[in-house]
Design brief:
Layout (H helix, E strand, L loop, with lengths): L4 E4 L3 E7 L2 E8 L1 H10 L4 E7 L5 H9 L3 E7 L5 E7 L6 E7 L19 E4 L4 H10 L4 E5 L2 H6 L1 H8 L4 E5 H8 L4 H9 L5 E5 L5 E4 L4 E4 L13 H13 L6 H18 L13 H12 L6
Parallel strand pairs: 1-4, 1-8, 2-6, 4-5, 8-9, 9-10, 10-11
Antiparallel strand pairs: 2-3, 6-7, 11-12, 12-13
Helix pairs in contact: 1-8, 3-5, 6-7, 8-9, 9-10
Length: 300
Amino acid sequence: MVPRILVAGGLALDNLKTPKRSEERIVGGAGVYSSISSSIFADTALVAAIGNDFPKTILEEIKRHGIDIQSVSELDYPTFHWSGEYKGDMSQAITHKTDFRINEHYDWNIEKQHREPHVLLLCNNDPNIQLRILEQTEAETIAMDTMNLWIDIATDKLDLVVSQVKILFINDAEAQQYAKCNNLDEAATTLLAKGPEFVIIKRGEHGASLYSKKMTKHLPAFRVDDFVDPTGAGDSFAGAVMGYLSDKNIDEENLLIAMNYGAAVASVTVEGFGTESIMNITKDEIDTRFRRLVGGPGRI
């Protein structure tokens, strides 16, 4: 099956601590959050690696959402591991330790039937890995996410990836860091000049902003009363946006609709610890939250 969207993102086992809860070796990684979110809207395939310690029950959960995992490789090494915590308002993750050893043995090979998706979503990852994915695929639309680490240590390669994508997802602090300026509007202008047609700046509880050379639009987040864990919110947002867009024209009107769906999905993610809430997500719940965001009963 040729998927509407191919998600390229890591699967992980995390040690996670928030002001409300702490657990070890829980399932995480951008690949989980983004693929589950995109699968709400479109046929999704996932390319990633798991180690010999990854729970098989989680693979079954991923498949239960209709996600094609034929490009997920199982290697005889430990799964990617992240250990970190959130403090205070939980606006920024504090990383204590990472274990990337699996990437030394994984070539991110994509099965032939997954190499021509309508949409390719490059989740946050080493730009060298993102380039490896690009070498193997021909997608009508390419979107990507990144983070401060790659901005710090791999700017040249990151620029090369960014120059090939239509949509760049990035959070507010990283946009300022990457563009080397403090004003978000100016940062977006600088990032658009690197090649993307659209830049979407994620602003956490303050929503997200869409930038193109023609327009700027700020959208709100969905208000969450029981905020448990921000892990994966940005990945869920990006996955939902690109899943919604996978069978549509990529224009400002459809992007704004997609971003409201992304906000709805992200709001579900943060109500659970790790992947707890998103694993049980339903389209009906997302539609209800979407209607509230765009002006229906209970608009926030």
